[in-house]
Amino acid sequence: MNLDPANPTPLFQQIAEGIRHALAAGAYLPGDPIPSIRAQAQKLRINPNTIQRAYEQLERDGLIESRKGLGMFVTSRADDSARASSLEALRDDLARALRAARAAGLLPDQIDTAYAQARAQLDAARRNGPARKEHP
Amino acid sequence: MNLDPANPTPLFQQIAEGIRHALAAGAYLPGDPIPSIRAQAQKLRINPNTIQRAYEQLERDGLIESRKGLGMFVTSRADDSARASSLEALRDDLARALRAARAAGLLPDQIDTAYAQARAQLDAARRNGPARKEHP
Amino acid sequence: MNLDPANPTPLFQQIAEGIRHALAAGAYLPGDPIPSIRAQAQKLRINPNTIQRAYEQLERDGLIESRKGLGMFVTSRADDSARASSLEALRDDLARALRAARAAGLLPDQIDTAYAQARAQLDAARRNGPARKEHP
Amino acid sequence: MNLDPANPTPLFQQIAEGIRHALAAGAYLPGDPIPSIRAQAQKLRINPNTIQRAYEQLERDGLIESRKGLGMFVTSRADDSARASSLEALRDDLARALRAARAAGLLPDQIDTAYAQARAQLDAARRNGPARKEHP
DNA sequence: GTGGTCTAGACCACA
DNA sequence: GTGGTCTAGACCACG
Q1: Which end of chain D, C or N, has fewer beta carbons within 10 A?
Q2: Which nucleotides of chain E does any protein CB come within 7 A of?
Q3: Which CATH class name applies to A11-78?
Q4: What is B11-79's CATH number?
Q5: CB contact at 8 A, A43 and A15
């Protein structure tokens, strides 16, 4: 899980996002328990309140559910939901970015070119492994 | 200028963004004065301090400059700078969105499809006039 | 930190300057937290908004960074940056002063003499301790 | 006279400075009248209030004096005073710059080097004529 | 009239 | 507790 305290996106969202990815990747199967708030907090060396907020968000999204006295468990449809919500988030992000670009008066060609560049950069990163940042 | 107080991005940034767009679109030419802080504040019904903060940011970015006792004036290279910074912002947004999508395990096909959808939605909105917000 | 409300240079810049000096002097090490806005405001008996503005400037200059809910922390390269910017400021000041002197028709000898005097005055002040203000 | 409305130093000071230089250079002799506020304002295309403030400052410094109903005239000791005040201004500027540099923790060597650089740059500019800005 | 600084006090999100 | 944004209203220098 990639946590960066200097990142402007809130810590609890970074955590929720990390777990969402883990679910989409199948790291936790439906019915599995996820680490308790206290355990997670200790492991990540982060304030338990922050973990709590991350779990709350996941629960609202239906990815995990609490069973009284037992802890939080992965929902049956969690992996699909995780993928779906990731896709939805991507759509939202793209739509927002394009709307802003259009409002700024950028031409469709410029927008497509920017996407192609970002896309190529992503492929390069994938080929070179996740640790690489720039093309060599 | 589209100002939404419910939007999580700060008001003063929304204002700066709006003027940046106006500059990119050529609404104010180099050497032109932009509306005075007080006038803008009255028109947008927003506190002058907030306008001041927006203008401050534009001045730091070299888009406008202040002449004491006279007002704020558009810099000579303002429109180019505004376009360039808009393009840069788009690239950043796209790269961030794609990185997140990849981290979430989405397939390249899904990503491209999402972009195509967002792109089509943008074109549709353009054809139907700038007032349309939702899919037609 | 030397704050003079009668000084024409804005308070928030004086504050930022003071912290810049402290960073250059190594008073705060990279990774250290700097005093919270509210604490600093209370200590200096100055409005928190003014402190906030000073910190904002330091953050823009890359000397400190904020972590939400935790405070502002010294950047890794802060001390070097602080020194570099101080040196740059000195060069600018000297160049501006010399340009003005030349424009006023002063002779090179007069300029050098003035610098020697200012330099000697500085040495004397250093020998006599930082509290001395006037010529001994 | 070099007037720059984008310059952060107030226009009226730039004007006063320009006249001070003219006096030091002997462009106006003691007893000569200087251009009336209205004439000066029209020639420089500047608000008469601004000229008025510049003349006020020169009068306070004893460089010019008003004779009722006649206008403003150059004082007998004006050229010497102009030179002296320029020298004094230089001393002040240098002392202030050095004090700031010392407060920032710069070493004496660094300060002397910075002065030598500024001095060399000045000489180069002088050799190349007043219009040149950078060494070729 | 203009921009710029400062204070006071409020509310918010985050850890 | 932290930083960040916004409002309200004051005062200043400048043209």
Answers
A1: C
A2: 1-9, 13-15
A3: mainly alpha
A4: 1.10.10.10
A5: no
